[in-house]
Specification:
This protein has about 300 residues and is mostly helical. The chain is built from 13 helices and no strands. Helix 5 runs parallel beside helix 13.
Length: about 300
């Protein structure tokens, strides 16, 4: 889902920049892979919204995670089960699992009550939360330009929430809380940058699996064969989407491909209208535009600062 994508500008393990003569071709392919990954994430969101109308969040997470774990099994065996199940810094790993499970549950719960475009808009503020929390939690220096962008981004969130008595209802607050949890997930992922991607994803899936196993029996609805397949596809499609995004970052630099992650709001609006008949209000369009502009500015500013640091 869109909520699961923690791209940012972080380096990807094992990634090397493309050679000069192939840079243009690989950059183009990288952009295509990023666009495909984002499209698959939103398709995953659409299936999730469809399914939580019938099945509980716990049941969705349980079946989805089982299928995702099956898909991850070859990578786990290749890396070594013992190494994956006994990672370094277990305390930080546990904290990351809590954040990842809570933000996915918040996303599914919110999307059951709100249009898809609304929830995706709130989750787009995740990178803005990261910048705001980078100082106190990561010890990173954030200058006045990025702080200004953070304030603008949060203004976009308020606009998208359509301030009124009804706007600040529980679903909207859960979605905004989910975006904060998503930011905390990205921050803990930065702190665990030395942990392999397979280990991180495996524990993320296991956390959701355990959470789902605890809650699913409370409101269990026996799925039809079609719905059981769709529930399983949630895990498969999300995993393939992650593979596409990681491949994009291997083919091209983050500066080239990361801005394309914001196409998710366009897909969310289009597919939300086609599948559910949802037409976002003007405030959502304005708010999402402000959030995207602030997020892009923060990202480009961080890229500029990184280039200046390399020249020194």
């Amino acid at each position: 889902m869109a909520a699961e994508m923690a791209v940012g500008g972080a380096p990807v393990e094992g990634v090397r920049p493309p050679v000069a003569e192939d840079a243009s071709a690989t950059a183009g392919l990288g952009i295509l892979m990023m666009l495909l990954g984002i499209f698959l994430f939103v398709c995953n969101d659409v299936m999730g919204k469809w399914l939580v109308a019938t099945y509980s969040v716990g049941q969705v997470l349980l079946i989805r995670s089982l299928f995702a774990l099956l898909l991850l099994a070859p990578a786990i065996l290749r890396e070594g089960v013992g190494r994956v199940l006994a990672p370094a810094r277990p305390g930080m790993q546990l904290l990351r699992i809590v954040f990842s499970t809570a933000e996915v549950a918040a996303f599914y719960w919110a999307v059951a009550y709100l249009p898809l475009a609304d929830v995706v808009t709130f989750y787009l503020s995740g990178p803005i939360w990261v910048t705001a929390l980078a100082g106190p939690l990561l010890g990173e220096k954030v200058g006045w330009r990025r702080w200004s962008a953070v304030l603008v981004g949060f203004a976009g969130v308020v606009i998208a929430m359509r301030p009124s008595e009804a706007a600040f209802g529980l679903p909207a607050l859960v979605a905004v809380s989910g975006s904060l949890l998503f930011a905390l997930l990205m921050i803990t992922t930065r702190k665990l940058r030395d942990t392999s991607g397979t280990t991180l994803v495996t524990w993320q899936v296991l956390g959701a699996l355990i959470f789902g196993a605890v809650l699913a029996p409370v409101h269990w609805v026996t799925p039809t064969p079609r719905d059981f397949l769709l529930l399983g596809m949630l895990g498969v499609v999300a995993t393939v989407a992650h593979i596409c995004v990681n491949k994009a970052l291997k083919l091209a630099s983050a500066a080239v491909v990361v801005p394309y992650q914001y196409t998710q709001i366009a897909w969310a609006v289009l597919l939300g209208w086609i599948v559910f008949g949802d037409i976002p209000e003007a405030a959502v369009f304005v708010g999402s535009s402000v959030i995207v502009a602030a997020g892009l500015y923060i990202f480009l500013r961080e890229q500029q600062i990184a280039r200046q640091a390399r020249r020194r």
